[in-house]
Every structure is written in C-alpha cells, then in structure tokens.
Amino acid sequence: MRPRLDWRGIALIAGSAAAAAGFAWPFFAPALPQDAQNAVPYLALALVPAIVAALLLALDRQFASAKAVALLGVLGAIGAATRVLGDTVGGIEPVFVVLILAGRALGARFGFLLGLVVMTVSAIITGGVGPWLPFQLFACAWVAAGAGLLPRIRSRIGELVMLAVYGALASWIVGALLNLWFWPFAIASGSSISYAPDASGVANLKAFALYSLATSTLTWDTVRALTTVVGIALIGRPVLAALRRAKL
C-alpha cells in the first residue's frame, strides 16, 4: 500500500509547482532578451528557499535510521559518479538509470531527495555551480520522484518496460525543461526559434519547441534516452531487487 499524502507531501508538491512556474516564466512574463539574461541569477536564487524547504520536508521519519542515511549516501555517491562520467561523453548520462531505479524501489520522497543530493555533489565535483544548478536540482529530483509515483505492476518484465518508457520520456522532457532557463537569450531575435517578448504564449511555445527540437531533443536528449533505456534493460531487475531488500 502506498503511503498516504500528508502535509509534507502536499508541501513538496506546492514547492515543485512554484519551481515549475520558474521554469515556464518565458511564456507568461514578457522580457527583452537582455533583461531575461540579467534576471536569471535572481530567478535561480529565488528557487533556493524552495530547495531548502524540500530538503527539510523530505527529512522526516523515513530518514531517521542510520540505514536510510547510509543508503542515501551510497546512492548519492554512485549517482554523482555516473553524472561526472556523463559530462565527459556527450549525452551518455547513466545517472537517470540510478535515479529512476532508486525512486521506483525506495519511494518518491526518497527519490526526490536523492535527486537533490546527486546533482549537488556532482556540481561541486565538476565545478558546475551556477544559475543553472537550481533548475537541474529540481529536474532530476522530479525524475526520481516520478518513478516512485508510477503505478504498481505485478509483472517484472512489465515493470521494466514501464520504467524504460518513463526514462525515455523523462530524458526528452528534462532536456526541454533545462533549455528554458537560457532560451530567451540564447538565440538572436528575429528567427523562427527566437524568444519574442511581444509574442503570445502560444507563439513562444511553438518557437521554443522548434528550438529545443533542433538543439537538443534530436541529439543529446535522444542519446540520454537510449542510454537510460539500455541501462534499465541491462541492470534494472537485479538493482530493483537489491534496493528493495535494502529497504526492508
């Protein structure tokens, strides 16, 4: 039986909704590209309290035991290592395999926290701390948490297929989300894929879809999707079994 949604879960959802609004600001807050570029560090800073709140809310009784903390530390280290590896080979990011399998086996709240830990540690290791980091933190936390919220499936093969499909979709969606923070000032104005502050939200959504498709969806994000699918297919079954035994 899945745990019921308590006030901590509701607060995490509310914080995630606020973060989602931060991702989507180009569609409802018109700004000139230069203004957008200047505003991004402040927008990223505004997400930090939501991240801290999510961390505190996730640290409830589920993480009161030394075993749970140790498991979080081990998986966080593994996830950070796989992300560092992915930074050296374009698009091959096995970190999604770790996040999805852990989130599925150990629950959405654990997965959310693991996503925050993995991205923070890997950013410190690689020197990748900047205005993009809060967006990456939430995106990866959502990927892991989403795996824990997927419906139960009795068939082990069916579960792996579901996780593989989820991993592929998450790879493309996260790639698009992470394009949002810099898209308004990434392309010179006047093209069919440029951000236009005076255009409607629908028009900018179409332009962004074309931009994301051309710059990452068909290349980097697709490689990430394939890596995730192959990784889940190869190690999903034994890793899920091991994590579920560790959870007991």
Automatic annotation (TrEMBL):
It comes from the Bacteria. Keywords: Membrane, Transmembrane, Transmembrane helix. The chain crosses the membrane at residues 7-28, 40-59, 66-85, 91-107, 135-153, 160-182. This is ECF transporter S component. It comes from Gryllotalpicola protaetiae. The lineage of its organism: Bacteria, Bacillati, Actinomycetota, Actinomycetes, Micrococcales.
